[in-house]
Amino acid sequence: MKNSGSVYKYELMWILPSIALPIVMLGLLIYMAFGHGIHLPGEAGIVDPAKLTATAPFNKLGVHQVGEKRYQVNMMAGIWFFVPNQIKVPAGSTVEFVASSKDVVHGLFIKGANVNAMLLPGQVTRVTARFDKPGEYPFLCHEYCGAAHHTMWGKVIVE
Ligand code: CUA
After folding, report:
1. What is the pTM of this model?
2. Whole-angstrom Cα distance, residue 151 to residue 73?
3. Over its length of 159 residues, how does the chain's per-residue pLDDT go in tens digits?
4. What atom of ligand 1 comes closest to residue 150's alpha carbon?
5. Hey, whose CA ends up nearest to atom 1 of ligand 1?
6. Relative to the CA of 77, which ligand 1 atom is closest?
């Protein structure tokens, strides 16, 4: 039969990509995991949320200067607050936020800065942002965390 040959050709056009795609994806996964070192957080990023304020760097909450125009903010989130909730840095500063939650899942979103992260109990979140323009950059919790979720906010004041 003449037609059956072309029917198989179409079958093959579907089957081959469906075999090739998972192979390509597996290849990419292996490449990202080993080539770029993207993997689940290691031991270094794990803390006991119940002992958060007794564990470095969360035993020193607040803003710390670590270099010229470089700051590290050790931040704790809890129901329903951030410590610190007012962060003052000079314009042109690069700020690394090292944050974690002491209880439930919270979020950290800083308006006008490239910060949008989840804060998980037991995990350390590190995000870095540069603040060039003076002004106030409000931040808030954007993961629903209970009755007073909407009161969980603070601001970065760039002077
Ligand atoms: Cu914390 Cu919502």
Report:
1. 0.76
2. 21
3. 455 667 888 898 999 999 999 999 999 999 888 887 776 655 668 899 999 999 999 999 999 999 999 999 999 999 999 999 999 999 999 999 999 999 999 999 999 998 999 999 999 999 999 999 999 999 999 999 999 999 999 999 999
4. 2
5. 106
6. 1
